[in-house]
Structures are given as C-alpha cells and as structure tokens.
C-alpha cells in the first residue's frame, strides 16, 4: 500500500501526538529528575517541521522519478540534518546549562522522526519498484 501525503500526515500526527503524550507524562513519572530540557518543545517543533518539509520534498522527487528521486531524498535528509543541527547547536551555545540533556532530547527526537520518515519513503520506493 503506497504512502500518500495524506496518509503520511495522518501517521505523522499520530507519531507526534504519541511523543507529546510521552513528553507530558514523563516528568510526572520521574519527579525530581531532569529528563526533558527546558528547550524540548523548541527542539520538538524544529525537528517535526523539518521532517514534514523533508518528506514533502523527497516525496515530490520520488513521484517525478528518474535520477532526481534519489537526489531529492538525499537533499531532503541532508538539509533536515543541517537545519536541525544548527538549531540545537545555537540552543546549546546560548544556554550551556543542561547541554547533555538538551543533546539527548534532540537526538532522540531526531532519530525517531528520521526513522519514521525513512520508513515511509521506503514504502513509496518499494511500491514504485513493484510497478
């Protein structure tokens, strides 16, 4: 079953909602322990928005087909990586307290969203190859 943009957005909203639910519940479960950075919600917004934009760029490239499809995949993932790293670096430089927690929060969000994005893109590529 191919991953349409509407289906991706639906699954993306589900993943985002699950992450938000965990982020809201986690501090209450572990009171007194700093689990989430004070800048968690900024990182969440940046990573989720860049994931959505990178998927749209990559999906458009896959639909065009040819050599451009692989290039659009790589450009989407690379620009997402650079944009996210620039934001997390700026946050860590501007607010150096809790650097480790901020970095761990960022990388956990980044890898969750990237794994989800790549899985959805691979579904599109697999369906394209079966045609």
SSE layout:
Elements lengths: L4 H25 L10 H25 L2 H28 L4 H32 L1
Walk me through what this model shows.
This protein has 131 residues and is mainly α. The two termini are 12 Å apart. It has helices spanning 5-29, 40-64, 67-94, 99-130. The protein is built from four helices and no strands. The radius of gyration is 16 Å and the shape is flat. It has one domain.
Concise summary:
By secondary structure, this protein is an all-alpha fold. The protein has helices at residues 5-29, 40-64, 67-94, 99-130.
Structural class: mainly alpha
Major sheet attributes: none
Mean pLDDT: 90
> How many DSSP helices?
4
Low confidence ranges: none
- The helix fraction, in percent, is over 70%
Computed CA radius of gyration, to the nearest angstrom? 16 Å
What is the string of SSEs from the N terminus onward?
Answer: HHHH
**β-strand number:** 0
Gross morphology: flat
Features:
131 residues; mainly alpha
